Amino acid sequence: MKVFIVHAHPEPGSLNGSLTEAAVATLTEAGHEVRVSDLYAMGWKATVDADDFGSAAGHPLDVVHDSRRAFRTGTLAGDIRAEQDKLRWADAVILQFPLWWYSMPAIMKGWVDRVFTDGFGYGVGEHDEHRYGDRYGEGTLAGKRALLSVTIGGKESHYSDRGINGPIEDLLFPIQHGILYYAGMDILPPFVLYSTNHVSAEDFSDAAKSWEQRLLTLADTEPIPYRSQNGGDYEMPSLRLRSGRENSGEKGFGLHRRVARP
Fold it and tell me: Are 39 and 6 in contact (CB under 8 A)?
């Protein structure tokens, strides 16, 4: 299996750094190929601008259309093309990051903004009255697996169904469903470590064992059963979930998971 890890933490000796090192060692020892993009070490440019699109950049700049032209003509900046090539190469993608302000660090969001260009991450497939492109389960990255490995300073209870910060599945939904599943990937349940501001050696040893087990089952873990856009669950062209497809009383993000029928 080919595994691409995108790592976002400014301190190499951090818990996130240790988890990435453990992932590389575990996966390599198990016979998998691994590539890592350490965004801070790379000095990754997190902002989209005209330099990303070379000669395809318009005046005024139109990010959507200019990125599509650059993607089609091969004039995207070299660092963007390199990351797209890593995504094409990979069978599985791991995003390793701390939860900052309820989301990924800005440098990782900037990686998404620049790498998931029109024609690659979105804007794929036919758009008409019967189909709104290839996305949410389809697209350029279909067939690949994605896993979030997230460290959180707060307690697990704070991120529970009645926790003050909201359920972790809701907080990660924009990343898992809105970015990775949107581009076609199968999303595995996240690996989340809580209360990471004070991690003892014993705590890390236990966490490392759990992380190793998740990594060794990367190919076999059942993905989150998100509904595909073009699988018949949504009305066209409104893309609203058809009546009766949900569990009784279900609402919010949970609507977009398939219901297990008896």
Answer: yes
Rounded distance between C-alpha atoms, residue 58 and residue 64, angstroms: 11
Q: Are 115 and 84 in contact (CB under 8 A)?
A: yes
Asked if residues 90 and 2 have their Cβ atoms less than 8 Å apart, the reply is: yes
Average pLDDT over residues 87-108: 98
Residues pairing with 193 in the sheet: 151
In 56-185, where does DSSP find H-type helix?
63-73, 78-89, 106-115, 168-175
Closest by alpha carbon to 56, among 73, 39, 40?
A: 73
| pLDDT tens per residue across span 10-40 | 999 999 999 999 999 999 999 999 999 999 9
Backbone angles phi, psi at 208, to 5 degrees: -65, -35
Average the pLDDT over 135-163 and give the result.
96
Please tell me the distance from the alpha carbon of residue 120 to that of residue 73, in angstroms, as a whole number: 13
Question: For residue 40, what are the CA distances in angstroms to 35, 88, 109, 237?
Answer: 15, 22, 13, 41
Which of helix, strand or coil describes residue 6? strand
Residues 6+ apart with CB under 8 A from 102: 165, 166, 171
Domain 2-223: CATH architecture, name and number where available: 3-Layer(aba) Sandwich (3.40)
Q: By 3-state DSSP, what share of the chain in percent is helix, strand and coil, each rounded to 5?
A: 35, 15, 45
Give the C-alpha separation, 211 to 240, whole Å: 37
Contact 114, 155 (CB under 8 A): no
